[in-house]
Amino acid sequence: MLQKREEGLEKVVEEEDEEEDNKRDELDSQLVSSKKKFSIEALQKEMKELNWNLAVAFNNCAIEFEYLGKFKKALEAFNNAYYLSSQIYGVNDEKSLNFKI
């Protein structure tokens, strides 16, 4: 009788261990998945998109400053747009050259 009880407890312990292992494996899998989301390549791509959006915003501001007759501010904004675009695509890229004055 005692032996059956011990065997039953061992079986329960084994099942609990297996459950814990499965949970641990699932958490490890989620961790790996979350690390992939924040990989260097993904962050670089995101930074490139944000910098491009900022370059376009500077260009739009420059156009507005030019319209308002604030030519010094317009020139600064155009230069900022060109600088950001050239950091992303290079100084001789067509997109960068569109911002160059």
Task: Give the arrangement of secondary structure elements.
Layout: H1 2-37, H2 40-67, H3 71-89, H4 94-99
Helix pairs in contact: 2-3
Span of the ends, CA to CA: 93 Å
Provide the low-confidence segments as ranges. Answer: none
Tally of DSSP β-strands: 0
pLDDT averaged over residues: 81
Main β-sheet description:
none
Helix fraction bin: over 70%
Shape: rod-shaped
In total, how many domains does the architecture comprise?
2
The ordered H/E elements are HHHH
Helical region count?
A: 4
Main attributes of the structure:
4 helices, single chain, mainly alpha, 101 residues
Structure in a nutshell:
The chain has 2 domains: 1-37; 40-101. 88% of the residues lie in helices and 0% in strands. The chain is built from 4 helices and no strands.
Verbal overview:
The chain has helices at residues 2-37, 40-67, 71-89, 94-99. The protein folds into 2 domains: 1-37; 40-101. Helix 2 runs antiparallel to helix 3. The model has no long low-confidence stretch (mean pLDDT 81). With 101 residues, it is mainly alpha-helical. The longest helix has 36 residues, at 2-37.
